[in-house]
Amino acid sequence: MADEIITGVDIGSSRIRVVVGQSVPMEDGRAGLHITGAVEVPSSGIHKGSVTSMEDAVSSISKALESAERMTGLALNKAWVSIAGHNILVQDSRGVVGVARQDGEIKSDDVERAIEAARTVATPSNYEILHVIPKSFTVDGQRGIKDPVGMNGIRLEVDAVIIQTLSSQIKNLTKSVYRTGLDIEDLVFAPLATAEAVLTQRQKELGVCVLDIGATTTTMAVFEEGDMLHTAVLPVGGDHFTNDIAIGLRTSLEVAEAVKLKMGHAVPDEVDRKDQFSIKDFGSTEDEVIKSKFISEIIEARAEEIFEVVDDELRKIDRSGMLPVGVVLAGGTVKLGGIVDVAKRVLRLPVSIGAIQGVSSVIDEVRDPAFSTAVGLCIWGFEIRSTRGSKFSFKIGNLSNITGQAKKWIRSLIP
Fold it and tell me: In angstroms, rounded to a whole number, what is the distance separating the alpha carbons of residues 63 and 169?
């Protein structure tokens, strides 16, 4: 039973979200993923993907795990954990190996050797590799091969994307999780997990960008021909809307957050000029009357800035206004009214809010865009367990060696 439990822990700057799923038989005889629990708690000790206070982070993660265990009635022992942050580095790499078999047939271990060869890139001394993601293979000069297993050849090459982050970030995050008593199955770069939850394979083939607007950062990943083409972590997010409102109203962040959630809309033209409210109703000590349109203008300006930065990233890879599927939005901030309309106007692309794909559940939170990454972590883990040894498992930049060493080191420090 315990082996069938799959847990995803999304550690964000404002919220920690835990999603618990189980492998269940489906009508067609295959295994499916059913979400049995989804909880969130306020986060502390985490800022822009990095641990800023170990004790606060451990406390927040522990509270989230306890809530999930109470909700599901299950003991959670291990989980797939998200990692993001502005320290992420992405670079292309190539691995080349020879096929040693006499008949020249390419096996899974040959592919694994090629991917391992691609890992041997020059990385900064203080960075660790998170993922090695194959984009395409080449067999004896024949390019563009997606899965070479079973083919014949002498020389096997792989073009891959290497995702790296600071060693200290990995160690601090893993130490925070281990101190709660939870083992880490693997760390997963957050936008990859989000993509598993809200994108179909067809969308990845045609060309799509998944954009997760979190509290302090916005993460994006661009897919084309089924492979990740580009990724970036942008240092702006939903808290910047709150900060702007607090400055505009000369009030506290708590009041500004309440105003954003209740009155926020990103398109001023859709707000009645006569609509107004008193900030006293939102906890302020002052009884000032504010026009709703003023709040909308503040939100629109910040939303335009975020999407302009996203468009700059797309321009770097010559995909500005050129993605057939467009942009799929995720994250809690996308629930702001009118955010889709602003994105369409600035990015000049089709834009939609991502819907969770490929899981069953009766829990309402699973359909919340804020839970996209946590659900994606569950799907990621489910796919790894279901297809271990297949093409999907090659997409894992396994941290088992790193986390295994870190675990021993951390366990020795815990009394």
Answer: 22
Phi-psi region of 51 (alpha: psi -120 to 50; beta: other; left: phi over 0): beta
Structure tokens at 384: 């790894």
* Band of residue 390 on the pLDDT scale cut at 50, 70, 90: very low
Contact 151, 105 (CB under 8 A): yes
pLDDT digits (tens, 9 = 90+) for 278-331: 999 998 888 899 999 999 999 999 999 999 999 999 999 999 999 999 999 999
Q: Enter the tokens of residue 237.
A: 């997010």
Structure tokens at 41: 């708690």
What CA–CA distances, in Å, run from 217 to 22, 50, 87, 146, 236?
A: 30, 11, 12, 32, 5
Which residue in this structure is represented by tokens 């939005």?
329
* CATH class of the 200-354 domain in this structure: alpha beta
- Residue 120 is given by DSSP the state -
Burial call 83-119: b when 16+ CB within 10 Å, e when fewer: bbbebbebeebebebebeeeeeebeeebbebbbebbe
Average pLDDT taken over every residue of the chain = 89
**Among the ranges given (128-137, 247-256, 314-323, 336-345), the one the predictor scored with the smallest mean pLDDT:** 128-137
CATH fold of 89-165 = Dna Ligase; domain 1 (3.30.1490)
Q: At what angle do helices 190-198 and 372-386 cross, to 10 degrees?
A: 80
